[in-house]
Amino acid sequence: MRQAGRYQAAYRELARKHPSFRERSETTELIVDISLQPFRSFKPDGVILFSDILTPLPGIGVPFEIDDNKGPLLDNPIRSKEQLKQLHKLDLSQLQFVGESLKLLRQEVGDQAAVLGFVGSPWTLATYIIEGASSSLYKTIKSMAYSEPALLDALLSHLADAMADYIRFQIDSGAQCVQIFDSWGGQLPPSQWDKWSGPYLRRVIESVKSTHPSTPLTLYANGSGGLLERLGATGADVVGLDWTVDMADARRRLGSKSVQGNVDPTVLFCGEAAIEAAVRDVLSKAGGKGHILNLGHGVLVGTPEEAVAHMFALSKSIKAAELVTA
Predict the structure, then answer these.
(1) Is 168 a catalytic residue?
(2) Residue 111 appears among annotated catalytic residues
(3) Catalytic site residue 33?
(4) Fewer CB atoms inside 10 A, N or C side of the chain?
(5) What is the pLDDT of residue 235?
(6) Annotated catalytic, 153?
(7) Residue closest to 98 by CA, chosen among 131, 147, 54, 159
(8) H or E segment at 65?
(9) What sections of the chain are H helices per DSSP?
(10) Is 75 a catalytic residue?
(11) Res. 1: pLDDT tops 60
(12) Which positions carry the signal peptide feature in this UniProt record (predicted)?
C-alpha cells in the first residue's frame, strides 16, 4: 500500500536533498520521481501516487504541518460549531500538483502498470482534524460522538463530499484505481463504526460510482478483523486486508468480494524462505481469482530492498495451477 519510502536508498538520497516532507509530497517533479522509484526497481503491476492522506486538507480550509518526529500537527483543531464554519468546498486549484503528477505518471508508465491514487476516509481524516495530531486513544473525537453528535456529523459529511470530489479529480487526472484508507476505522467498536464511519464511506463511494462507475475503489482499514463484512457492504470493489486476518477466513466472510493483501510486512525481514512460505500461504488461501497480492500494510522502514524484490519476483513466478496441486 505504501510503495515508496525510506526503505529505498534512492528515496533516502532524495530526502537528504529535500528534507521537507511537504515539499516532497507537494512538488510535481518530486512526486513523480518518488512514485516511480519502486517501479524502476521492482516493476510492480501498480504504481501508487506518492502523497499523504492529509494533502487535501488545506483545500477545504484546514492547514497542517508535518513534524519529522511528531507527525501531522494542526494548530487549530476543529472542536466547535464556530470553527466548523472555516470549512469550504474542496478547492482543487490548491491540488493541481496531484493532478499534474497523475497525468505524468500515466505517461511514464503507459500500459506497463496501473496508476493508483488514494484518499483518507472521512473518519480517519476527522481524527486528525479534531485531535490535532496523531493519537493512540482518540479520546476527543470519541467523546464528541456522544457530546456533540451533530457537530461530528457535519464535519464527517463535509469530508465525505470533499473526498468524493477529490477521488473524481484523481480519476479524471489519470488514476485508474483509487484506494480509500479508513486507517483508524478499526479503533471504533463495530456499533460505533456503523454510525461514524460506515455511512460516510458509503456516501463517498456512492457519489463516485454515480459519475465514475467503472473505476475500481479499494477500501482498507487497519485492525479491521471485526469489520470485514461491514467493509464489504460499503460498495467498494475491493477490500484490503491487514495481516491479522487469515486469508481463508476473509474469503469465507466476504464471499465473492475481491480482496487485497495480506502478507505480514515483518516477514520481509526474515529471509527468502520465510517470504516464499508467507506468499504461498496467502495465494493458496485466496484462490486464483479476485485477489491482489500485497502486504497487509506498507513496507516498513529498514526493510531490505532485496527482500521486496524477492516478493515481487514470487508474485510473477508462482502460478495458480501450481498452488492448486501443491
Answers:
(1) no
(2) no
(3) no
(4) C
(5) 98
(6) no
(7) 54
(8) strand 65-67
(9) 9-17, 21-26, 28-42, 81-84, 96-109, 122-131, 139-147, 149-173, 190-196, 198-211, 228-232, 247-254, 272-286, 305-317, 320-325
(10) no
(11) no
(12) none
